[in-house]
Amino acid sequence: MRNVGIIGLGQSHFVKSRTDVTYPELVREGAQLALDDAELTMADIDAVVVPLAPDALIGIGNGERWLIEAIGATDKPLMRVNNGGATGATAVEAAWMHVASGMFDVVLVAGADRVSESMSAQSVLNKMWDVAYERPYPQNTITMLAMSAMRYNHLYGWDESDMARVTVKNRRHASLNPHAHLRAEVSVEDVLESRLLSWPLKLGDVCPSSTGGASLIVASQEYIERTGRTAAWIRGLGQNTETFWMGDRVGDSHVGDHADADALAVAFRHAYDQAGIVDPKTQIQVAEIYAPFSSVEFHVIEAAGFCGQGEAPALLAEGAFHLGSDGVVVNPSGGTQCTNPIAITGTVRVIEAATQVLRRAGDRQVANADVAIASAIGGDHQFYSTFVIANHLDPIGTR
Amino acid sequence: MSEELIVVLTSGHHAAAERVDDRSLEELIFASTSAAISMAGLTPDQVDAVVISGNDQTDGRIISCMVTVGAAAGVGKNVTTIASGPEHAFTYAVMRLLAGQGRNVLVVGWSKPSESVEPEHAELVSADPFYVRPIGMTRQIAAALQASVHAAPAEAGTDYLAWPLVAEAGGGHSDGVCALILEARDSADRRPGAVVRGMGWAMDRYELGDRDDLIAGGFDSALQQATKQAGPSFGPVESVDAFAVGPSNERRIVERVVARIGSPDTAMHSSQDELNPDFAAGLFAIWRAARRVMPDAQPQPVARAAAVATLGFAAQGTTVVLLSNATEV
User: Fold this and answer.
1) To the nearest whole number, what is the mean pLDDT of chain B?
2) Does A182 fall in a domain?
3) Which residues of chain B does A378 touch, with a Cβ-Cβ cutoff of 8 Å?
4) Which of A17, A81, B30, B222 could form a disulfide with B320 if both were Cys (CB 3.0 to 4.6 A apart)?
5) Structurally, how many domains does chain A consist of?
6) Is pTM, for the whole model, over 0.90?
């Protein structure tokens, strides 16, 4: 199997809405940033992977067919990935697969999203549920994660104040990230006093609807060495899938608890095994994890192996996971909670992880960041993608 | 491609009907995937990964893979939805195996427009909102525009679906699923199966008026990729299976393939007498081509076969897959 590295990174400055560009132009924006970063042109790109899901949010089906001219991909192999919210990360895995297979040397992941263009993202996202059983609740991404948060708090004894601390941390981190959408710092009180959406989730706990483009370029080790480039190496990756049916995640015969992210833990284990990580607490410095709501961050931290189930809130309250703290720093970019362009949110997680190990993160840089993880979640905690990214190809050691 | 590793298409199941009223989409997917897995001598637990393809708008769900993945044997596995087309799902599955990610992979593509109130509307919203959607573009109208480039003037009294496509020309809606099992094997392994020797895929510009080639977008690039991978030892293909919307469109593509990598004896197999459910038809063509190189093929197996399939309005994209029997490797 070939080693694969990331050699170009590009992302927009994310905002709620962009009326100055079409969807193809927005994809072009991110792609051009990555090409410029890698000092490449589209002539150097062997194949393209487009993350796009759900395409209803941009108002056109199979939007990847619309952007061929805009990114200069005419006559190039191009395919589109759609794994719900995990799409942006799954697209990176797909690009890795292109190169690791030996068929291609340089592959571009190019995507964008404009969630606010749908007018009501939650109305669109309600349609992802089963027609007969779950859509009539009405179920949407807020109510589904509200139930997960209730279950987590019930099982482990935490409450809304613990969730609010996640927001405070992520907003502080986002204030240092020029690409982040929500950059204003907030207090625990601000979050607790914000508008209730679906108990226990409040406006301060949830992500925004973001618009922007994001791209990255992966290449084979042979290409990277031949052209004398620096790379963030993809050392491990994993994917796993949970059952769709929420009823199978509660009750006496459940196959996985809605409070936890057991299937994500399996995906992390796959990536760790491939990368040779045996102790994530000491071998990983940065975690760019997909947690659109404050409550989600806890069980992703736990699934990543940074602490035991139900322990993350106490550690956060003690100062763990913050920039400048000892141990792993979680979402130094501000994470998905501060920027969520759904189709490319997973791509941004990988971009941020790569940015950290390349020591290019500016004010949000984690000291001594050699190894980072990235993850994404699609559906109702159903599709999981995980990555281990490092700035070297040596065996991964401990701090 | 890797010298020591080959990818072999070992089993498949496809089913199609003009309209299936007694089973849901998930039940159709479950039936085909179960059959393909069983015919490969596997159990669902032994499937290493799943690659699926469908269309959210046609399926009537914003993220269709959420509810369909269970029926496609995906729970607890690495699942990737390749939404640009089922033939892309196939090429991605091959790449997975070449990258050393498991020993087998299940590929599934489907469409069940009979569950949709107005399937043409799902096609219409796949048209860009500024130029193409206002003129009412669907895949049949796009195929008619494509065919019109080479068509004779309309004949009075003919029942045109959209000139020059006649009503019986096919390209209409149908329900169906195709599930295939691919395995990674050592190149010395001579067990039966269709060996994937080369593949290529590419897309042309979106706007029809901007295209240089209205027969098959990206055809030259796709064929070049496939033949390069197959290498110079890969001889002329003895049969070609194709899928395109509209008989004249498909015939022109097949003729191109034969002219470039076939011989005067190459058999050309049309899909126009078969049902071609969207997001499964490309896999149907690949599976038909694969069966022709398998030892039990009737009337007799061929050594080398090609599949070519198109996707998008007026064949915006083309995929070429070259296959051979195991002894050809």
Assistant:
1) 93
2) no
3) 63, 66
4) B222
5) 1
6) yes
